[in-house]
From TrEMBL:
Record's signal peptide: none
Residues covered by the Nucleotidyl transferase domain: 6-114
UniProt key word Nucleotidyltransferase: yes
InterPro entries membership: GlmU-like (IPR050065), NTP_transferase_dom (IPR005835), Nucleotide-diphossugar_trans (IPR029044)
This protein's name: Nucleotidyltransferase family protein
Organism of origin: Mesorhizobium argentiipisi
CDD domains: NTP_transferase_like_1 (cd06422)
Keyword annotations of the record: Nucleotidyltransferase, Transferase
C-alpha cells in the first residue's frame, strides 16, 4: 500500500526565522533555489502522491498563490486563518480532505536529499497497518544538518519506538510519517500536538520507525541557510 494523499504542515509562524519571516511564511524560504515547501511537495510527487492538503495560517495568501499553478500533486488548502491549530489540530481539521486510508504527513520546514531508493517509497514499503498506527521517518545525528537539539527515539530490533530522552544513540524524527486516520477518532478539534498521539502509540506498541538514507536538513534561523545550501550541494554531488 502506497499512500496517495498527504498532509503538509505549513501553518507555523516561523518566529526563529525572523526577520525573513516578517514578510513571508517560512515554507516559502528558498534553499538552493527551491522553497522548503516545494522540496517537500516534489518528494511527495516522486512517491506517487496525487493529492496534498496544505494547511495555512500565517501570511496565508502567499502560500495559496504559490501553489495555485502546481499540477502535481493536486493541492487542497486547509484554512486555519482563524486559529493556529498545531500539528495534530491541523490534521484533525483536514480529515475530511484526507479520507479513511493511511496518509503521509510531512513538515513544510524540513526536507531531505535521498541516497538510493527514495525514503517515502521505503516508508510505504515498511508500513504495516496490522501492527502500526504511526510509522516515522528517522535519521541519525551525523546525517542531519541544522539540528541543534538531541535525539527523539530509540528503535527496537523490530522497529518499535520509545522516547530516547536525548540518548545520543537514538534517532531524530525527520519530519515525515505515515499515519492511519483511525488514531484521530474522537480527537479534540482545538489546538494540540502530534506528540500526544506518538506517546499513545508507544504505550500501545504501535509506534514504529524507519531510518532514512541520505541527508536531512532543517533550517531554524537565517544564519543556518548557508549550511543548508552547502549540505544540498554536497548531498547532490554524492548522488551523481
Amino acid at each position: 500500500m502506497r499512500p496517495t494523499t498527504a498532509m503538509v504542515l505549513a501553518a507555523g509562524l516561523g518566529k526563529r526565522m525572523r526577520p525573513i519571516t516578517d514578510t513571508m511564511p517560512k515554507p516559502l524560504v528558498k534553499i538552493a533555489g527551491k522553497t522548503l515547501l516545494d522540496w517537500g511537495l516534489d518528494s511527495l510527487k516522486a512517491a506517487g502522491v496525487t493529492k496534498a492538503v496544505v494547511n495555512v495560517h500565517y501570511l496565508p495568501e502567499q502560500l495559496v498563490a504559490h501553489v495555485a499553478d502546481r499540477k502535481a500533486p493536486k493541492i487542497v488548502i486547509s484554512d486555519e486563518r482563524e486559529a493556529l491549530l498545531e500539528s495534530a489540530g491541523g490534521i484533525v481539521k483536514a480529515l475530511p480532505f484526507l479520507g479513511s486510508e493511511p496518509f503521509y504527513v510531512i513538515n513544510a520546514d524540513t526536507f531531505w536529499i535521498d541516497s538510493g531508493q527514495p525514503s517515502l517509497e521505503r516508508l510505504a514499503l515498511a508500513w504495516d497497518a496490522a501492527r502500526m498506527d504511526i510509522l516515522l521517518m528517522l535519521t541519525d545525528l551525523d546525517s542531519a544538518t541544522g539540528h541543534c537539539v538531541g535525539t527523539d527515539f530509540l528503535v527496537a530490533p523490530d522497529g518499535a519506538l520509545r522516547r530516547s530522552k536525548g540518548d545520543p544513540t537514538g534517532l531524530i524524527y525527520a519530519g515525515a510519517a505515515i499515519i492511519h486516520p483511525r488514531i484521530f477518532k474522537d480527537a479534540p478539534t482545538g489546538s494540540h500536538s502530534l506528540n500526544a498521539y506518538f506517546d499513545r502509540a508507544i504505550a500501545a506498541g504501535r509506534l514504529f520507525g524507519m531510518k532514512m538514507n541520505g541527508r536531512w536538513i532543517t533550517v531554524g534561523t537565517p544564519d543556518a541557510i548557508p549550511a543548508a545550501e552547502a549540505a544540498v550541494a554536497g548531498a547532490l554531488a554524492k548522488a551523481v
